[in-house]
């Protein structure tokens, strides 16, 4: 650490900067320390990489983790859904701040919902999970791969390149674009990505301020994310696996919905399980995720 300023590593996209800015404000409030954002360009930001060869797993997070391990920054802020399951030695997700809306959002040119879209409408998404669920709900829709940041994707709807696009509601809201949302899609129709809407605040385990920053952690958000990410791990998902997992918390119990699809959404498995929470809540969440993953894989 340099003096009393914590350096916060972030990707340079508008969304990443907005998210890191939120976390910076929370850290300043909780610790009294000053913070400074340090933008880091990652492999995942390179839009020249064609869709046919997606960036390597964890491309958004890998470089950020490298600079964190190297001590060039004190904190890294990630969209939790972009973080690979495998832990990095010496690093710890010290805090999961209160999670935003997990759902996916439809942004349509006509301002209408998914079921009201005209037959054969073009819907933009490059996510196999979103494409599979949309195709299942509306086999007539034409799925158009679109990439780029949130603004680019919203612009493609405005410009009529596509009739609609599906994005994470949390990203739109954090960029002040919540008014563009025409439908918050029911998680039973489109199961959100594991940890969608949650942020991961990562630090070196031995960092002198790790315990202080850990105060930002929201235990309920952590519980849900742990269950959802256990599904990711259990099905050995890569970033091209069409896997959704969505956990709901009702005080004394956890409910978990998960869905695994082939790329056209034809073959799919949908699982819903619930567990009562005991004294070991994180253990219960982990076991729920494991059971759901095993069912998805047809082993239970
Ligand atoms: N894969 C990109 C990505 N990573 C996190 C978010 C949104 C914010 C979040 O889920 O926390 C997005 C954009 C999107 O899916 O529309």
From TrEMBL:
Signal peptide: none annotated. Its cofactor is dipyrromethane. PANTHER family: PORPHOBILINOGEN DEAMINASE (PTHR11557:SF0). Coiled coil: none annotated. It catalyses: 4 porphobilinogen + H2O = hydroxymethylbilane + 4 NH4(+). Residues 223-297 form the Porphobilinogen deaminase C-terminal domain. Tetrapolymerization of the monopyrrole PBG into the hydroxymethylbilane pre-uroporphyrinogen in several discrete steps. This is Hydroxymethylbilane synthase. Pfam families: Porphobil_deam, Porphobil_deamC. It comes from Propionibacterium cyclohexanicum. Its EC number is 2.5.1.61. NCBIfam families: hemC. One of its GO terms (biological process) is heme biosynthetic process.
